[in-house]
Design goal:
The chain is built from six helices and four strands; from the N terminus they run βαβαααββαα. A four-stranded mixed β-sheet has the order 2-1-3-4, covered by helices on one side.
Length: about 130
């Protein structure tokens, strides 16, 4: 099952939700501001990142600016505790399953969540248009 972690006020979250619905992709939605993540859930997301905390920390958020913390000097457990305590530090939307993660909304990148058969059919259609 695909997970969609959102913030109500996030335009990117609304776009991701609309895209998933328009492509008939089942997902479980969660507002992580009103229903914050626990430490195990933060670890699960961090495991899926390519660049660790850089991929999920919102450096433009007011909370990040107010805290004025050097993220590079935090231990992993300190980072996890910080993200649990301050969910507004986490970029949204976060879209993930057991193997893939997408942070933010990018229409090209989100296509990786389409079933393989759909992606293959689209590729065949493009190839037929080219030839």
């Amino acid at each position: 099952m695909l997970n969609l972690y959102v913030a109500q006020s996030s335009a990117s979250s609304r776009k991701a939700r609309a895209w998933l619905k328009s492509h008939n992709i089942a997902f479980k939605e969660r507002n992580i501001n009103s229903n914050p993540l626990n430490a195990d859930e933060v670890k699960q997301i961090l495991r899926l990142t390519e660049n660790g905390s850089e991929d999920i920390i919102s450096t433009r958020s007011n909370v990040y600016k107010k805290l004025n913390i050097d993220m590079d000097n935090l231990s992993v457990s300190q980072l996890i505790d910080l993200l649990v305590k301050y969910p507004y530090l986490i970029k949204r939307p976060i879209i993930f399953d057991d193997h893939r993660l997408e942070v933010g909304f990018n229409e090209e990148e989100i296509r990786r969540f389409l079933p393989r058969s759909v992606r293959e059919a689209e590729l065949r259609e493009l190839e037929s248009q080219i030839s």
